[in-house]
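Reviewer 2 asked us to include a model.

Predict the structure of this chain.
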Amino acid sequence: MTDPTGLSTLRQHPLRAIVVGGSAGGIEAATVLLSALPRPLLVPVLLVLHIAASSRAQWPLVFRSSTAPVHEAEDKDVAEPGNVYVAPSGSTVTVEKYESRGYGTRVVDVNLDGRPVDALFHSAAVAAGSNGCGVILTGVGNDGAAGLRAMHVANGHTIAQDEATSLVYGMPRAALEAEAVAVEAPLDMIAKHILGWASWAQV
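Predicted model (structure tokens):
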């Protein structure tokens, strides 16, 4: 019997990571995306939203919407499969590969030329390579475009939210212009594209 979700493939090939970035409208978009991912999703998800500190009052929406447990990332923590890790206030989170334990998180002060999403995506390009999936959501500016391009060059899968469903199309547009995007999709279809990638990606 076939597995349309791709979850059996994830069980066979556990060394994967999904990284997600956005800004304006990103909290609402992340709630839709995380609620659409099945459980168990046997990979870690790392989420960075380039938003004002005042917007973090809406974080409970993200926590409640997810089908997987959501945690504020801690420095040098193991990124456990089936869990979502969000960057603490004033910081960004990046991913690194642990030889014997899969992936880990690094928490970095957000003094990164104002580009926390790029920092996450660049780290995933190095740590996960073709086993990484990067998703850029609605947002202002071009943070994330260069990092998503690095993931694309490393043969990772890259997805951008389309203009019609983006509150602000700046970040997805910049990623498209950087030739960093393999798939552009409406928000409610992004989870399907992630699972489609999982069904054929190879370790």
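Strands lie at 17-22, 45-49, 70-72, 77-79, 84-86, 91-98, 102-109, 132-136, 157-161, 183-185. The longest strand covers residues 91-98. We have added this to the supplementary material.
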